[in-house]
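Posting here for the record, re: iron/sulfur cluster.
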Amino acid sequence: MTNPVIRLEFKKFGGLKYISHLDLQRAVLRFIKRAGIPIRYTEGFNPHPKLVFALTLSVGTESDCELVDIYLARDPENPETPIITPDTFVSRLGAVLPKGLEIVSAYFPETDFADIESSDYLITLFKSCDIDVAKRLSEILSEPLEIVKKGKAGERVVNIVPMVFSWEVLEENGETCTLRATLCARQNEYLNPDHFVKGLMSKCPEIDNWLVKRVSINFKEGK
Amino acid sequence: MIRQDIEKLLKYVEKPGRYTGGEEGEIIKDKSAVDVRVAFAFPDLYEIGMSNLGLKILYSCLNRFDGVWCERVFAPALDMAEKMKERSIPLWALESGDSVRDFDFFAVTVQYEGLYTNILYLLELAGIPFYASERDESYPIILGGGPCTYNPEPFCEFFDILSIGEGEEALPELALLYRDSKAKGESKKEFLHRVATELRGFYVPSLYDVEYDGEGKISSITAKDGAPEIIEKRFVSDFNTAHYPTAQVIPYIETVHDRATIEIFRGCIRGCRFCQAGMVTRPVRERDPELLDNMARDTVNACGYEEIGVSSLSTSDYTRLPELTDKLLSWTQDEKINLSLPSLRLDSFTKELMDKVMSLRKSGLTFAPEAGTQRLRDVINKGVTEDDLIRAATWAFSTGRTSIKLYFMSGLPTERDEDTVGIADLAQKVVNLYYASPDRPKGKSVTVSVSVSCFVPKPFTPFQFEPQEKLEELQRRQMLLKESITTKKVRYTWHEARVSYIEAVFSRGDRRLSRAIVEAYRLGQVFDAWSEHFDFERWLTAFKNVDIDPDFYAYRRFEYTDVLPWDMIDAGVSKEFLIRENKKAHEERLTPDCRTACAGCGAPECAIREGREKK
Ligand code: SF4
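Prediction output follows.
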């Protein structure tokens, strides 16, 4: 192994779900440092620690399965061997993590974030009046659903339906409708679940609030 | 735990992480086991307040006592305030989520004039009447503190108690007295009376009567019911034993300063005549280098910071700086921790030091001559010369830096046009120096930033007697300077003179101004410290509506014999000293720094004067 890396899978919930992705990155880094886990710094003029997150997570979104690759400092005597095992990593980091961040597992990764295909979400939609959301969703998603995406190159209109790989209503009552959806998470085609919901709301204004939780990150088959 | 009704608002506001609490390091106690509950507010946004060292210290100081629970409160941004009003959710404290209205104390630290309207903003959101006289026993005790309390008069009527000076020892004393008073079943009035008469360093405004003469100047200030005529500021005698929390609340959202701040000393030996901090923080008290090194290490370990900020009014005046920096550098470099050493004066030692600490990130050099000519620098007692600046700039260019920031003040007492033009000349000299220096980076151009603020006379400074320069005149000088700068290499920015005018009104204001603050707030003024919210016309309307002439405060020369609005407060420096220094300013005479010769400022327990300073 030329690149000693540990992949951490963790949950993000409670008050911590209200921090931005950038703040989450800083927080994770800080706790890793507090745990005394030696991390590697990038070379160059302004060295910074090397942590790579699989996917971004919007403010307000909970997650059961965030992935981050932590590049470990190299032992000069033994540069090929990781200087910490996943077990030690878990026990040290677990001792300092606050409520709101919880370790699921840590391991030496065998997959590459570039091969991420999709991500699954549990989405709870709140209704302002009693309508059949399941039925409305089938209608909405059977034809193109366009949203405005703001990117570096300005605004562009995208049809998001092809990026909705599958969806299924798990439960519906007078006030809420809970669904599980698999949305595209490829590198250049990431569908933000908030954008998905906002797209639905543009066609179905009776939805007036929502909650999202990421429940899995899926890699390409065979990877 | 976030309260559910609050959580519902979070989706609709910017940066919801400001409102959740629950950060690592926050202190949670069992409500039923505490008898004094303090909601400690910083009346600005979370990310500003969470960087404040004073808040961290006092939070920890109070929470050291089992029966006392101190929680944090910040000013919600306007979008959140709107939602709170819509849903009738009153201001809450982050730790428990409980409404501030139900606490024993609501403490507000007042850090700058631009936050005066925010005091009312917080009170209103908490559902608490503005004036102390309108609040009955059911409301919390409203306690004020912070640097602005050296002249608390403009806002004193909103507070029951004001803490004067450093709070590390005073606030726990207050909390314990409250506990005793509560146990005895005393009324608020009885408690306030005990605070004024049994404790030191607390000002209870309702126990002082202020009278005015025919011109509107104060004719007398009378202490009632045995309250002390003079309230002496509190300060920690031994800074080595002063409380410092190495375990701190770690914010998740980005704050202004995300670093471990270690205060190396308090006080200042310099005696710049415009500077309030340099006067009111006397006497000079240093911490030992070993202690500081341990503090830094423990804080970094406990909180995971990547930067250590050394804090004081003038880093270079710390007598054992080489020892301290050696210790710090011995481990921070290996651990990739940045050291930030602001306000260094350039000498051979610091040059070497700056080469070491700044090699990682080449930050530009900053320098504060404050005035454009030597004559005016002598007037303000700023002991730097043009040579100092040239030496600093020469060094900076030789290390490959291509930018320098220069700070100046406009409207200083005795200032003439040649002083204003002198700023442009000085900047030009630095530009020329760059092009004349043989080892400057090839093919790169230089930027000299000139930043000019406006002089505001401050209480407890030798310039407290001086009027502020007229607004139109300040603006004329800003234009004059602009025209005097002929090169694009000099980037000129100036501080909005109208903001400084309002600051000057309140800086030397008396208690009649509380009505103006209420009126401005009623007209919608809030977050003055944020330029996008500051509305000058609205302030003028407010003054007019309550029949107050703001010029009376900003433009009047205060006579040496005048009763000053803050005369009931003793900030440590004597009025005789301030008068002496004021006269010397007009004679353009310098006063040497404290280590060269004691200027007899009157500061109590001064180790320098008493020859007790460790070398
Ligand atoms: S007492 Fe003398 S040495 Fe001490 S701060 Fe005042 S002027 Fe300086």
